[in-house]
Amino acid sequence: MEFAEKIKQYRAHNNWTQQEVATKLGVSRKTISSWENGRSYPDIFMLVQLSDLYQVSLDDLLREDHEMINNYKQEHASLAKQDRIFTISYLCNVVISLYFLWRALFGTGMINQLPPLGRFLAGVVVGLLSVNVYFLLSKADWKNQNRFTQVGSILTFIVVTALLIKLDFTSFSGTPYGIGAGFGRGFVVALSAMSIVEVIWLYPQFKQRRNR
Question: pTM for the whole thing?
Answer without folding.
Answer: 0.68
